[in-house]
Design brief:
three-stranded antiparallel β-sheet
Length: about 80
């Protein structure tokens, strides 16, 4: 909503692409996924298109692989098994 449905990285380049995914500025890990200041705080999230999200991860914004998945209700899971 605060980005009007548009990718933040594309907008910074003067392009207008819809948001596909949410990027966590502090990456989610098994240790912090239960911390709402990391996982749910809008100030730790930015909406990106799929290409920009992939680009951020490829450029080293992510320091280690994230091993957190979410089920259909948005509950965190690890390797496909509910915690």
């Amino acid at each position: 909503e605060r980005q009007n449905g548009l990718c933040a990285d594309c907008m910074s380049r003067g392009e207008f692409t819809p948001i596909d995914e949410v990027h966590h500025l502090t990456p989610l890990t098994e240790l912090n996924v239960g911390n709402p200041k990391i996982s749910l705080d809008p100030d730790n999230c930015v909406g990106l298109c799929r290409n920009c999200h992939n680009r951020r991860h490829e450029k080293g914004f992510k320091t280690e692989p994230t091993r957190v998945w979410f089920d259909e209700q948005g509950r965190p899971m690890r390797k496909g098994v509910e915690w």
